Amino acid sequence: MAWDFETDPDYQEKLDWADAFVRDEVEPLDLVWEHEQFVPLDGARRKVIDPLKDRVREQGLWATHLGPELGGQGHGQLKLALLNEILGRSPWAPIVFGCQAPDTGNAEIIAHYGSVDQKRRYLQPLLDGEMFSSYSMTEPQAGADPSRFETRAVRDGDDWVINGWKFFSSNAATASFLIVMAVTDPAADTHNRMSMFLVPSDTPGIEIVRNVGLAGEPMNEGSHALIEYRDVRIPADALLGGEGQAFAIAQTRLGGGRIHHAMRTIGLAQRALDMLCERALSRTTAGSRLSEKQFVQGYIADSYAQLAQFRLFVLHTAWKIDKYNDYKKVRKDIATAKIVMPTVLHDIAWRAMQVHGALGVTNEMPFFRMIAGAAVMGLADGPTEVHKVTVAKQVLREHSPTDDMWPTEWIPRKQAAARAKFSEFLDDEEGAL
Question: Which residues form the Acyl-CoA dehydrogenase/oxidase C-terminal domain (predicted)?
Fold first, then answer.
């Protein structure tokens, strides 16, 4: 019976190394160069970070989601999940390990669908960590609903010309290129009306109208761009994959990424739980430690239960992806992980913040940032509500209606059937009375 909850010993050694490395070498970067993860390296940052990347490569942990032909290890989703749990503690860690979003997903689709020239121009520098990219898909009037996208790409001789607006194009301000989803055949159905294009960020006609920040960040200093594409002219070979393939390409990109997000969220939530427990053991009020207060004990128990359940579910989902090698077959579980993820992080971070009192709501502790991150997770890669509809439909497909007036589990009928099944024994029993 193949049923095991232990990690392969050799890989566990790698995870232990990564855990210590992130704690001792990477997490300090979050305090010195905050919000600069997606700024191209130069000067002091390059002198510090390039050697860290080299140490990761020496351990065979650089961009492990990619196959050996692209410089990675070709790790399955289960191994990736365990590593991403560690990397989730630090905003800088994915950069140092060569697996930061959105670049990982963008690299994956270029590797799958890109031409030889596109891979040379965009993929290798992306894998080397020498450039950043932006995924420019959602629109102000449509959000993530592709049926309402209006940005158009029209063929003009040997070129394509793009016009329209995009919203929340993360890291566009520092990206070397953008992957733009645009409508190329308005008359086609939703799954075939759009195409993807690789667009250098210095192409004339691209205007970042403003860089939208998250709640609490200064106006126009965020990392999520509102972009107007005005007569942006690109050559025909900028098309990624084939015309009308954007929807299929996007699905290739999103499946594994949602599991990576989930495991990084688990690492972040574990950090919040650790801070909650430390505070409970350290703080004394009203004659006893916080850890002796039943309310706080309840916070700790609820947080541990939420995190443990979610972690096992995500790891099981990653295992199923590896087993079946088919994202569609595991679609229900991937969507479920996406549903649960924001609530787990929000609840644990909120409890930890509460136990820290006034200090917890200040910018000297990271809890509000975690809570804002939970809100973002509820919208990124599709709103939670959309994923709930997906899960419900998938679950309902596994069930059938009854034409009977009474439900299948109606007790009087089942009781009568049970009595009929054992009638000879019941008759003997009644005759003996």
Answer: 247-396
For residue 37, which amino acid is it?
A: Q
Which pTM value belongs to this model?
0.89
| Whole-angstrom distance, CA of residue 103 vs CA of residue 394 | 30
Alpha-carbon distance of 165 to 421, in angstroms, equals 68
Q: Which one-letter amino acid corresponds to residue 99? A: C
Q: Please give the Cα distance from 307 to 271 (Å, whole number).
A: 11
- CA atoms of 379 and 339, how far apart (whole Å): 10
- Strand-pair category, 177-183 with 224-235: unpaired
Residue 280's H or E segment, with its range, is helix 246-282
Cis bond upstream, residue 102 (ω within 30) = yes
Work out the angle between the directed axes of helices 367-377 and 331-355 (0-180°, nearest 10): 160
* Under 8 Å between Cβ of 176 and 232: no
Looking at the DSSP assignment, which residues form a beta bridge with residue 163? Answer: 152
Q: How far apart are CA 223 and CA 244, in angstroms?
A: 29
* pLDDT, tens digit (0-9, with 9 covering 90-100), for 370-410: 999 999 999 888 889 999 999 999 999 999 999 999 999 99
Summarised one tens digit per residue, pLDDT across range 254-270 is 666 788 889 999 999 99
Helix count and strand count (H, E) for the chain: 15, 10
Measured in Å, how far apart are the chain's first and last C-alpha atoms? Answer: 48
Any idea what DSSP says for residue 25?
Answer: I
Domains annotated on the chain, with CATH: 9-114 (1.10.540.10), 133-240 (2.40.110.10), 248-396 (1.20.140.10)
